[in-house]
Write a structure and sequence with these properties.
By secondary structure, the chain is of the alpha+beta class. About 25% of the residues lie in helices and about 30% in strands. It contains 8 helices and 18 strands.
């Protein structure tokens, strides 16, 4: 068992992380062309450099690491739809050396009074200032392990064939799936340090609306549009005016990809995308039941806190006969509302 308590490391992995200042590259050593062990570090100028180390035994070549990392990222990307939308919109907050931090401390700000209107500017206005409240966001690690035997690695090297990346791909896929589920709210949020990680469908301050089931008698494309328009009005009532992303569970697909009306040249989905303020309507694989999520894509509503992107670590056990790997990521959604509990998320369910 590897753990760190009161600043003291116990176990090989924990000790190496402590020695390296929680720089995860200390657990990513590779064999250089001269047969010696190296790790990649960042110098004072912010450039990546190779540093020779004597206390880290490398079992993989640099090309082996590239094969593994490419396989993990390739397997992970298709599973990150909602997360990719947030990151693609630039709604991210990066924490340098996220392994060395367990919570992100942020503040919510109250609103000030309205401005005063007068003809000469002499009328005394209300003297106030915003109030602030401190919130803590836990920074849990999402991780999945896999391993090779030393014999498998040597056989691959002797035969000149690349490593079998099946296990690495599976680990990367599982980490990505969990990151997606946490953002959607389909995974129970972590509670730590006085804060809780929430997603779109379990954030306490989200707006909730009952929508008509597509299986209900008389349901049409116009019914679906009416529900979306009502959800948009709820968001506007909470002073959130877009732009909005709309997410649907897969149960909607067979209905909204049908014609909007008889002999129409548009599907229901295409017609719904024409609603002002809606950027796109997408299906999420891990959104359960018959749900609709409308999210204002701005940083005061949601952002992805990134303490560490997809990273693979390596260490040895069983006297070096077993080489262990761990795919890790610190990717935590920060769902936000103001001090009046107004949030730019509307959650619809039947």
């Amino acid at each position: 068992m590897d753990y760190i308590m009161n600043g003291v490391a116990n176990g090989d992995v924990a000790s190496k992380l402590m020695e390296g200042g929680f720089n995860v590259n200390c657990l990513r050593p590779y064999i250089g062309k001269n047969g010696k062990s190296y790790i990649t570090t960042i110098n004072a100028a912010g450039k990546l450099v190779s540093t020779q180390v004597a206390n880290a035994t490398a079992t993989l070549r640099k090309d082996d690491w590239k094969i593994l990392d490419d396989a993990i990222v390739k397997a992970a990307m298709p599973r990150l739809k909602a997360v990719a939308d947030v990151r693609g919109a630039g709604l991210t907050y990066t924490i340098p050396n996220g392994m060395g931090k367990t919570v992100l401390e942020t503040e919510t700000q109250g609103d000030a009074n309205d401005a005063t209107v007068s003809m000469d500017g002499l009328r005394e206005g209300a003297d106030d200032r915003p109030t602030f409240e401190i919130n803590n966001l836990p920074l849990p690690i999402i991780h999945k392990d896999f391993s090779f035997s030393a014999r498998q690695l040597q056989t691959s090297r002797n035969g000149g064939s690349p490593l079998d990346t099946t296990m690495a791909e599976s680990a990367g896929r599982k980490v990505a799936e969990m990151a997606e589920k946490i953002l959607i709210g389909e995974s129970t949020g972590t509670t730590y340090g006085g804060g809780t990680v929430y997603g779109y469908t379990n954030f306490p301050d989200r707006s909730i609306r009952t929508v008509t089931a597509p299986t209900a008698s008389g349901w049409t494309g116009a019914t679906f549009l009416a529900d979306l328009l009502a959800m948009r009005e709820q968001a506007k009532t909470d002073y959130h005016y877009g732009p909005y992303m709309v997410y649907l569970s897969s149960a909607w697909d067979q209905y909204i990809d049908d014609d909007y009306k008889a002999a129409s040249d548009k599907t229901i989905r295409t017609r719904a995308k024409e609603i002002d303020g809606i950027t796109d309507i997408r299906t999420l694989d891990y959104l359960s039941d018959t749900q609709i999520i409308m999210v204002q894509m701005t940083s005061d509503v949601v952002r992805e806190v990134i303490g560490m992107d997809f990273t693979t670590l390596q260490w040895e056990t069983n006297g070096g006969m077993k080489v262990n790997f761990k795919v890790m990521a610190i990717m935590v959604p920060q769902i936000r509302s103001d001090q009046n509990d107004r949030c730019g998320i509307v959650h619809g369910s039947v």
